[in-house]
Every structure is written in C-alpha cells, then in structure tokens.
Design brief:
The complex is a heterodimer of chains A (506) and B (509). With 506 residues, chain A is an alpha+beta fold. Chain A is 34% helix and 19% strand. Chain A has 14 helices and 21 strands. In chain A, the strands form 5 sheets. A 7-stranded mixed sheet of chain A has the order 5-4-14-15-16-13-17. A 6-stranded mixed sheet of chain A has the order 7-2-1-11-20-19. A 3-stranded antiparallel sheet of chain A has the order 8-9-10, with no helix packed on it. In chain A, α1 packs parallel to α8. The radius of gyration of chain A is 23 Å and the shape is globular. Chain B is an alpha+beta fold. Chain B has 14 helices and 22 strands. In chain B, β10 and β11 form a beta hairpin. Chain B is globular. Chain B starts with 7 loop residues before the first strand and ends with a helix. Chains A and B meet through α1, α2, α9 and α11 of A and α11 of B.
C-alpha cells in the first residue's frame, strides 16, 4: 500500500453548524502541528437550516475536545439544559412518558435492572421505570445540578445535554476557529474542478476565484454540491419508513413560564411538534407528512400550539429521510445534511455531525487516500445512520393510535429486519441486543419500548434465582435516594442564572 | 398458547465443558424445577482439554467462580492454581523479540484517545519505553508480585486484571463437586445410540451401550471433538479453520519444580509451531503445539524435551486436534458446548471462556416451550458463532504475521487471512485504529498490544494524539511509568500472596 505525504490543505464548503463544528475541531487538533491549512468557504446570502437546536449527552465530549468552558458556552448560545425528551400523545392520545438520559437503576448480580423491574411490575409492586432514572426524576421537578466527578455520589449518574440557538452556536464556533487560524472566504460556490480521476481539485466561486485543496468536506446542506452534484454517489431513500417530509418552524416568547430542562415532542395528526426552551425564547416546529396534511393546516396547527406570541413568521422546510450511498468518496467527505437527513425526533442531527468529525479524525487520510480509510468511514457512518433510523421508526411503529390515516399507516407498516429482530427479542423476555458502535444504548431502547407500551411478556429466567423481597427493598431505596437528590438540586432557572453570573474566562 | 416447559436436561460427557455446564446450569436454573443428569463417558480420547499439563484462563473467568460461590483458596488448594497476569510472547515475531501481553489496561486513556496512539507518537520521537511498561499487570508479572486489584477507580491498583493457571483435572473436580452438591446426577456409561424423532428431528433419547435408555427435553453435547449428538445424530455442519490455523498436534508434560511460580504464562515460537510454559504450585506444565506436516513426532519430542527445565513427571502425551467450529452449535433440542462446538489452537486460552459464555447464553435463552426452539437457537448461534470467529481471528493474527524463515512460518505468511482479519489489519496499519466487532472476547488494548507485539506498526497514529504538547505527553507518560512501577513494587510476592490466602482460609475453617 502506498504511503502519501501528509495533507496540507483542507477546504470546507459551507459554514452552517456542520462546517463550523468541523473547522473548530480541525483548528484545535491541528493547531499544535500548524501543518494543515483549513479554509472555509461560505456565503452570507445562503440561508441556514437551523433545526438542530437540541443535543444529546455526547456533545459534552465534543465541548471537552475543544476545551470549551460550559458556563461560557451556555451564555454565548443562550442555551439551557436538557435531561430528557417528553413524549406526549405518541403511545395513545393523553399518554405521556419521558425518554431520559442515563441509566435506569443498576444491575444486580450481573442481571439487567429492567428485568427485575418487569418482575415487580408483573407483581404490581413497582411504579413506572422512570422513577429509577435520576434525569427523569429531576426533569419532573424542573431541577438540575452539574454532576460531580466523584463516582460514589448518586448525582454522578446524571447525564445531560443542551438546548441552544444554532445560529449563535455557529457564530461562537466561528470565532473559536478563526482565532486558531482557520481562513474564511466569503463567496458563493459556482462550480468545482475535477481531475481526470474524479478527485476534486478546486472550487470555483461566482466571482471567478479558485479555492484549491487536497481534501474537501461538503457541508453544503441538502444540496450536496460536491458529494451529489459532482460525484453523484446516490441517495438511499427511507421515506417509506419515515414518511414526514416537511417541517414548519417558528420561535415564540416563553410567556414567563419556568424553563423546562427537557425537550417536548408532541404527536400531532400527521406528524409531531418539537418544543425547545432557550433562555430568551422557545424554538418550536411541526414535522409532518405532506401526503397527509397541507402546509396551511400544518402551520395552523403549529400556531395554535404556542406557549406565547410568535416572534417570527413560520417558515417551511422540505426534506427526505435517507442517506448518501457513500459519505466519503474520492477526496470528498459529506458532513451534516449533505450526508443524510433524519428528522430531529431524538435530536440526532448535531450528533451525526459530531460522529462524522470524530470518525474523520480517527481515520484522517494522507494524500495517498488509502481506500481502507474511506471504506471504514462509510461502514461506520452507514451503521450510525441505520441504527438511528431504526430507533426513530420505533417511535412511529410502537403506537396504539388509530385516530388518523397517518397513524394507521405507521402502526401497520413493515419495518426493517434489524428493528424487527430487536423488538421481537425484547417483547419475549426483555432481552436487548446492541449492534456494534450503536449510538443509542440499552437504556434508550428500554425507555422508548416501555414508554410506548412494548413491554416484555416475561423476564430473564435468572431473575428468579434472586430473592425478590430483597430486590423490592433495593428498588425502594433507589427511588428514595433519587427523589431526595433531585429535590436538593437548584431549579433549572437558578442553575442558568448561576452559569450566567460565573464571570467566564479571566 | 400453552407451553411445555423444559424439565429434564441431559449433559453428554464430563470433562471440563460438561462439569462446568452442569455446575452453572444447576446454579442458574435453581429456581425452576429442572433436573440435570450427566453421562460421564468412559470411552473418551485424550484431547486438548484433558492433556493436563497446565491450563490457563482469561480474566473474565472470575465470573464463573463468583456465580458458583467458589473462593480463591479453593482454587489454590483444590485446583493447584496460580495467578496469571498475562502472557509473555517470546521469539515472536522473530527470534530474540519479546512482548508481554498484560491483562487489564495498558496506559490510561488520555484526552479520550486509546493509549497506544500516544505511545506511537512518543515512539516516533525516539522514546524507547515498551508498551508493557505502561501496564501494571506486566510490571507486577516481571517482578513476580501480585495483589488483587481494588475497585477504587481513582487508584492505579484498579487498572489491571488477572486470571488463573490451574491443573485441568483438579479444576474439573472442583466443578464436579459443585454440580453434584447441587443435585446433578452422574451416570457412568457410553453412548450406544441416539434416537431422533422422525417428525421434527429432535433428539428423543439416548441408549447407552449397556442398554439403559435416557430421555430428556434438552441435550447438551459435551462429548468433545467427536460431537456424538450435534454432528453424529443431527449433522449440524462444520467449518474447518486449518487454512489460517495450521497446527494440529499438541505434546505436553509437567515437571516438578520447587521454584516460586511465575504469575504469567510463556508462549515461545518454535520451528514449526510454539511451546507453552504454565507455572503451577510445585510443578510447571509444558506443551508443544505444532503442525504434523512440518514436524515429525520424533522432532517434536525433541523440541519439547529441550524446553523442559526438569525431568517430566510422566511420559509426554500427544493429542491430535483440528481448529474449526460447528456451524450450528444449537440445533433442534441439542446444544454443543466445548470442543464439540469449537476447537481453537490454545495459543490463547479461550476454551473455557467460550464454554462459559455458551452456558450462560443458553440459560438466558432457555426456550419456554421445549418443542419450539428456532428463535432462541438462531440468536444463540449468531452470538456464539460471532464469538468463535472473533477469537479465531485473534489467534490467527500471530500465525499470519510471524517473520521467522523456517518452512512452517514461510507457509504461514503465505496463508490468506480471513476477510474480517484482513480488514482489521489494513485499518490498523493505515491509522492505528482497532476495529471491534460484535462479540469480541479481546478488547481494544489486547488487539493493539497483539499487533504492535507482532511488529505490525501503523503508518500513522491518530492526529488527536498531537493535540497536547509533546513535552506534556512525554511527562505524563513518564509519570505513568513511575506510578506503575512503584505500585508493582509495593505488592507482595506471588508465592506470599498464595500462602497468605491459604492461611487465612485455614484460620476461618
């Protein structure tokens, strides 16, 4: 195999969340070497798709990689804390459950916690499983405290993420990246020049300027200027499983209510509505299937369900669920919406960008572009997208709703074999099988499967070897400790005020 | 739907797989009314499991003894056990080379990046410390010292792991006592005929050679490589691995030794295979694993004789084996555990680990209805099949990357790697990344240490390793080495640890 010279010039096309997250990471990682020049081309005339305002816990690892101070981050992005997603009306109308971050209880004698829970549940001796997850208990009380590093504290089990203003986030990361030497070029890309072997050689801007590079990252959004329009890698369409193809979005005042430390996802007649609380406003949008609902009706539904007066006119987004056949082809990697789209039901958009960045760093190529790196990257990202896809489909499929054509279609659709296998295993005896490199862990699947009433018929036979009365006592203690721990936290608002006041960097 | 639950389990074959299965099942199914019988076969042939010249294990084996409630002193006394902190690989991948593969962590995760990337960076800048200098298990092993790890995550003493060496026949006895105490019935005999039901292919009963007929709902085939039930009666299919694991003979013996036992095993590359050295209390087991096509029995006996450091306690014993696996270890109402399911070159002590995972998975997937087993069997075969293939790849790695010039090793280098292993290697060579698949027995640091030990060096390490200043990384790695060395020096000797453990057990008794 050939060994090439190190890459010197990386060009990022597009400066949305994906572009600036990558620019920030590259500037941080390669800053020490000073050996890689990073150029980002963007145009202020092109609008951003700012749907990814809620995140999941791995974002804290990304912040740590950049060395970002969390309080400063919350101030700069007008952000808030996210401990869970509250799902309203998904299982059936009038039903609510939490999908919290972190674990439920803890394993006993190497047997999974939920197995014991199910046995006690069958005996009528326990409340719902949410009572055993600290993030769910704190969500209900609207409280939060940053977990201490000491693993003996019950608070250390708390996992959290953020809500933030995506436009402010991109601006924040831009300052970070530019300070570390990333060069930003303002301009619209008109074309790209390819070598005879198809590799991209340079971008050509509308004013005729050429931006040359050895490696290009396509962050141009849905259009996929390089990955699709130039390299024509093709698209894998998942809209038969995830039929929502539009969203109408807006922002509204928070009407003085307390700020919830969780995202809310409320099922509607032909889709669902997100509600993301920030410090200064609430971001909200209605994701729907255009085959089942008109834009006007969707907008009317959204406007009828706001916490306070709308701050901007609603705008429509169009998309299609699916992914590129290849995320990395030749010397181009597609990141963010250029790579694929999955609706923000589980707040995975920003995470998929982050996953792409960390894998790209791990597999960073040299100028020889060894095919094994691209192949591994494609394998890893394909599996990330597919597993998240399955998890999203579960939300639509595991429903009892039969009040609209949309929900009838979802409830009776045929689902991917990979998801079918998971559901069957779980429903029989609560067994979970986690695929390699899968983002969502057992606890996430348990929360949604049980939350949407796909409860196991039985439980692991090994549970019967353990004294159930002793287990019941342990369960009571866990509930008690979590309730007291959560009640002792400051309110979410108090926490944010403290973060805002904490002076920041000297 | 009414279910016909499993009430009777018949294990065919004693040996280490049979008695371990009996002990574990009698414990794990204790709350269900299941009766377990075991046919202790008398016509067994000598195989890898019964060579009895020292058996090594992997750290996860602790689970077996924890579930069965067997304490360490019982292993030291009842199974002649010693501690294992890893394996010293000598003369791999070339004569004179040496790499220790420790149990537990190598280095600490720095900046959320696997340690070996930092190590590669320093190596490139001229630093000479070995990878094993960053593993507490390796440091303690070299000093002949041992103390059990602590749970305190903040302490360096929580960063390593350990397993045991023991005398196989004694360990089997510990398992058998445990099973019989829990009510497993032992029947001595030999399989005459296996009766298969015409309508569904399930096994109905076994007639012993003396005419006794034994019926059961579920049959566990622990008859060894002969696979009397799973292959003999159910024809579950076999996958031959000799194309990447060419050794097919093992010759082994023990000699008495009064020296303090080392807390690690040694695997030394030889002309047409390799030799093991496994220290026990009062004796040392030695074996020579080789390929019949490249070394005569006479030459092999000489190789073993040269490795022995004392007079053998008995005439060295020879077994023939072939690496490979059963395609469907669970078929109908029969589950194969042990050599009937998988035989793997013992370069890594995976046999008992695989058998333990088999019996645990079986207990978890035990069908609610004895007549409907397809779904459970499919899932079981997926899990155990993957497990076997991943372990195979880990062992095959050393055969494919050894650089010696003898005809045997030259032929090994010309073998083609299984696709899964070739992919792992390409990726590691390109950028130092370890690709972990489902059901791996060996972890990221094990793979990294194995590749690096075999001098398969990545062309590039992760660019993330370059984030901290070089001097800062050099300093934190130096601190790591110092901390590890002083922690190892503070441990008692291996021999003292065993003696103290036994004395404490005596004073309790």
């Amino acid at each position: 195999m050939s060994i090439g010279a190190p890459l010197r010039n990386v060009v990022i096309l597009g400066g949305g969340t994906a572009g600036w997250m990558l620019a920030a990471a590259l500037s941080k990682v390669f800053n020490a070497k000073g050996a890689v020049n990073v150029t980002l081309v963007e145009s202020e005339e092109i609008g951003r798709v700012g749907v990814g305002e809620a995140t999941i816990p791995p974002i804290t690892a990304f912040n740590a990689l950049l060395g970002i101070d969390e309080d400063e981050f919350l101030r700069e992005t007008r952000g808030s804390i996210k401990l869970a997603i509250e799902f309203v009306d998904w299982t059936r109308l009038g039903h609510t459950y939490f999908h919290p971050f972190g674990q439920f209880g803890f394993d006993i004698e190497a047997i999974k916690f939920h197995q014991f829970w199910r046995k006690l549940d069958l005996m009528g001796r326990t409340p719902g499983i949410e009572a055993y997850c600290l993030a769910a208990v704190a969500s209900q009380l609207g409280r939060f405290e940053r977990p201490p590093p000491d693993p003996r504290s019950p608070l250390s089990a708390l996992k959290y993420a953020f809500h933030f203003d995506a436009a402010l986030y991109a601006r924040y990361l831009r300052r970070f990246a530019e300070k570390r030497g990333v060069r930003r070029i303002e301009g619209k890309v008109a074309d790209a020049v390819q070598r005879s072997d198809g590799f991209i050689e340079a971008l050509v801007l509308e004013d005729g300027r050429r931006v040359e590079g050895e490696f290009f990252v396509d962050c141009s959004g849905f259009r996929g200027l390089l990955i699709e329009q130039k390299l024509k890698v093709g698209f894998v369409d998942w809209s038969h499983w995830l039929p929502c193809d539009r969203a109408v979005a807006t922002q509204c005042e928070s009407a003085g209510a307390s700020i919830t430390p969780f995202t809310r996802a409320t099922a509607r007649k032909a889709g669902w509505q997100w509600r993301i609380p920030l410090q200064h406003r609430i971001g909200t949008g209605h994701v729907f299937s255009s085959a089942h609902m008109s834009d006007d009706e969707a907008a009317a539904t959204l406007l009828a369900n706001l916490d306070g007066p709308a701050l901007v006119d609603p705008w429509i987004l169009r998309f299609k669920a699916g992914r590129r056949k290849k995320f990395w082809d030749k010397n181009v990697v597609a990141l963010g919406l250029a790579g694929g789209f999955l609706e923000p039901l589980e707040s995975t958009s920003i995470h998929l960008i982050q996953a792409g960045i960390t894998r790209l760093l791990a597999l960073f190529p040299d100028t020889a572009f060894n095919p094994v790196e691209a192949e591994e990257y494609n394998r890893l990202m394909t599996s990330q997208y597919e597993r998240i896809r399955d998890f999203l489909i579960l939300h639509y499929y595991a429903t009892e709703r039969n009040d609209t054509e949309f929900w009838n279609q979802c409830r009776t659709m045929s689902i991917p074999d990979t998801l079918r296998a998971k559901i069957d295993l779980f429903r029989a005896r609560g067994r979970l099988f986690r695929y390699e490199d899968e983002l969502f862990a057992d606890a996430n699947w348990i929360a949604v499967l049980i939350g949407q009433n796909f409860v196991p018929e039985g439980y692991d036979p090994l549970v019967d070897a353990v004294d159930i009365n002793a287990v019941a006592q342990k369960f009571e203690r866990i509930r008690d400790v979590f309730e007291r721990t959560a009640a002792g936290m400051p309110t979410h608002r108090m926490f944010l005020n403290r973060a805002a006041a904490s002076g920041g960097r000297p | 739907m009414s279910n016909a639950p499993i009430r009777n389990i018949l294990i065919v074959g004693g040996g280490s797989a049979g008695w371990m299965s009996a002990a574990m099942l009698s414990r794990m199914l204790s709350s269900r009314r299941v009766s377990i019988q075991l046919i202790d076969l008398t016509d067994t042939e000598l195989d890898l499991d019964s060579l009895d010249a020292g058996e090594a294990s992997l750290p996860s084996i602790a689970e077996l003894h924890a579930v069965l409630g067997i304490d360490e002193a019982t292993l030291f006394r009842g199974a002649n056990a010693t501690i294992s902190l890893g394996a010293d690989f000598v003369d791999w991948p070339r004569e004179g080379a040496r790499a220790f593969r420790p149990f537990g962590s190598i280095g600490f995760r720095l900046d959320n990046l696997a340690f070996h990337h930092h190590w590669l960076r320093l190596r490139q800048s001229g630093e000479s410390a070995k990878l094993s200098d960053y593993a507490l298990a390796a440091s303690a092993a070299k000093l002949g010292r041992f103390a059990p790890p602590t749970d305190d995550q903040a302490s360096v003493l929580s960063t390593f792991d350990y397993a045991y060496h023991w005398l196989g026949s004694w360990h089997q006895k510990v398992m058998r006592d445990c099973a019989e105490r829990r009510g497993v019935t032992r029947i001595e005999g030999d399989v005459g005929r296996v009766h298969v039901r015409g309508e569904n292919g399930f096994i109905e009963a076994i007639t012993l050679k003396d005419g006794r007929r034994l019926e059961a709902d579920l049959f566990i085939d622990c008859s060894g490589a002969r696979a009397l039930l799973i292959q003999g009666a159910l024809h579950a299919g076999y996958e031959d691995w000799r194309a990447c694991l060419p050794c097919d003979r093992a010759l082994a013996a023990r000699y008495a030794s009064a020296a303090a036992p080392a807390p690690f095993r040694t695997a030394t590359a030889a002309t047409a295979g390799w030799t093991w050295r496994i220290p026990l209390q009062g004796s040392v087991g030695h074996g020579h694993v080789y390929a019949d096509a490249f070394e005569t029995e006479e030459a092999a006996r000489k190789t073993l004789g040269a490795a022995l450091e004392g007079a053998p306690l008995e005439e060295p014993r020879l077994v023939k084996f072939a690496s490979g696996r059963r395609m469907k270890a669970w078929s109908r109402n029969c589950v194969a555990i042990g050599a009937s399911a998988c035989v793997l070159d013992p370069l890594e002590p995976t046999a008992l680990r695989l058998a333990l995972k088999s019996v645990k998975t079986l207990a978890q997937l035990l069908p609610a209805d004895k007549n409907r087993t397809t779904d459970e069997a499919d899932e079981y075969n997926r899990i155990l099949g993957e497990t076997a293939l991943r372990a195979r790849d880990f062992v095959a790695l050393r055969y494919l990357t050894t650089k010696a010039k003898t005809p045997f090793w030259t032929a090994c280098r010309a073998m083609s790697a299984p696709d899964s292993l070739a992919y792992k290697r390409d990726l590691f060579e390109a950028c130092g990344r370890v690709y972990l698949q489902d059901e791996e027995t060996f972890l990221e640091s094990d793979w990294a240490a194995a590749w690096l030990g075999q001098e398969v060096i990545p062309r590039a390490y992760s660019p993330l390793a370059d984030t901290p200043d070089l001097q800062a990384t050099r300093e934190s790695l130096r601190r790591m080495r110092t901390m590890i060395r002083s922690a190892a020096e503070g441990m008692p000797t291996h021999r003292a640890f065993i003696e103290t453990s036994l004395a404490r057990a005596d004073s309790r008794a």
